[in-house]
């Protein structure tokens, strides 16, 4: 699905929806790590999962500064194309990485929108640009391995 995360009209909602998306992504990453065979793939994806945990830490800090509740898990909104449940039935490193890559389309789009969202502060927009660069790096690796 094409995500609308990042297009919220308030900074508070933007941060909260990004947190939900990130928690969904982290759950999908864990499912991916559990199912990959190749140790190099597992290590790399665990490294990327740590990037997402940093995103969560910063977003949680932002929610606190804004005085709103910081979601601590994903929900049933299905922001991701291939969430943890769908991933559980996929077999083979290349197929799994290709499926995970579609999730990075969503996270990239969300941070691309967020970095241009006028309700966010310039500091937050700069962080969203950095997160977009992280997600782009994740997707490029997954695509290269899926094609290898
Ligand atoms: Fe992330
Ligand atoms: Fe990612």
Elements, N to C (H/E): HHHHH
Secondary structure tally, helices: 5
What about the largest sheet?
Answer: none
The small molecules bound here are: fe (ii) ion
Tally of extended strands?
A: 0
What is the gyration radius calculated from CA atoms? 15 Å
CATH architecture: Up-down Bundle
Number of domains: 1
The shape is elongated
User: What is the H level of CATH, i.e. the homologous superfamily?
Assistant: Ferritin, core subunit, four-helix bundle
Reported by name, the CATH topology is Ferritin
Structural class: mainly alpha
pLDDT < 50 runs, ≥5 residues:
none
Described by its quaternary structure, the protein is single chain
CATH class: Mainly Alpha
Distance N terminus to C terminus? 26 Å
- Percent helix range: over 70%
Strand percentage lies at under 5%
Overall pLDDT level: 94
List the helices and strands and how they pair.
Layout: H1 11-35, H2 39-66, H3 84-87, H4 93-115, H5 122-147
One fe (ii) ion binds next to helix 2, helix 4 and helix 5.
What is this structure, in a nutshell?
This protein is an all-alpha fold.
